[in-house]
């Protein structure tokens, strides 16, 4: 690897989404890895600088470490396309679709990819919490356009559901109500179209929420996950199908669950996963003998 081949690299981090703090940590880790390998890289926070400054700074390409809205939803990708700057990860369409949980689910359903049943509620519209609980039992409430489990909550009574929906409306005007799945949680990293070893996340918190991801010391990770070879092959292929279906490319992560009967269900596609010390993508590739610095270079090489 010749670090000069990349030219001047902007590591986009921070931003103004609800995931700003995680993005700053991801971006700093990426910046450190690039700098350690001799790449001319610098930090760039779109919340603090005009994006057009990238041109005056003679930037050659961008490593996107922005999470959530403005960074993972096609917005920054479109701006970089306009500026003529190569960037890491998915393009405009793949980023936008993957960030939209509702359209992701609709695509999964349309292609008969296994995913849990769901409903959508809009702010200001009528919804009957009693009827929803009667239909689904327990429900996972998710803002339609947030990541890192922000605004998510489980509800198994009408009162809990009403509160959870109103809490989720603080983050989004559209909220998805997904039938609760009791079982195991997994994630599959996809790099250059190839599924990496599966990671299983085990938390005492009920589900893999924001605290379990970034703050708790009680979360356990198993990689490769304890699955049969047939189950591993099936889940990896399912993840690759989902990744391709939404138009994602480059690198990313697909989350899934397995119920008590062994059935797998797709949850969502992440096109700019976390790259912190607790992140899942570095954990997955490490099982394939790839360290963090190599991972960062592999991702950046996709922009050449």
TrEMBL record:
One Pfam family in the UniProt entry: Dala_Dala_lig_N
EC number: 6.3.2.4
GO molecular function: ATP binding; D-alanine-D-alanine ligase activity; metal ion binding
Catalytic activity: 2 D-alanine + ATP = D-alanyl-D-alanine + ADP + phosphate + H(+)
Catalytic residues as annotated in Swiss-Prot or TrEMBL: 19, 148, 279
InterPro entries named in the record: ATP-grasp (IPR011761), ATP_grasp_subdomain_1 (IPR013815), D-Ala_lig_Van_CS (IPR000291), D_ala_D_ala (IPR005905), Dala_Dala_lig_C (IPR011095), Dala_Dala_lig_N (IPR011127), PreATP-grasp_dom_sf (IPR016185)
Entry keyword set: ATP-binding, Cell shape, Cell wall biogenesis/degradation, Cytoplasm, Ligase, Magnesium, Manganese, Metal-binding, Nucleotide-binding, Peptidoglycan synthesis
Enzyme class: ligase
Cofactor or coenzyme needed: Mg(2+); Mn(2+)
Domain ATP-grasp: 105-301
Localization: Cytoplasm
Alphabetized NCBIfam families for the sequence: D_ala_D_alaTIGR, PRK01372.1
HAMAP family given in the database record: Dala_Dala_lig
Record protein name field: D-alanine--D-alanine ligase
Species: Pseudoalteromonas ulvae
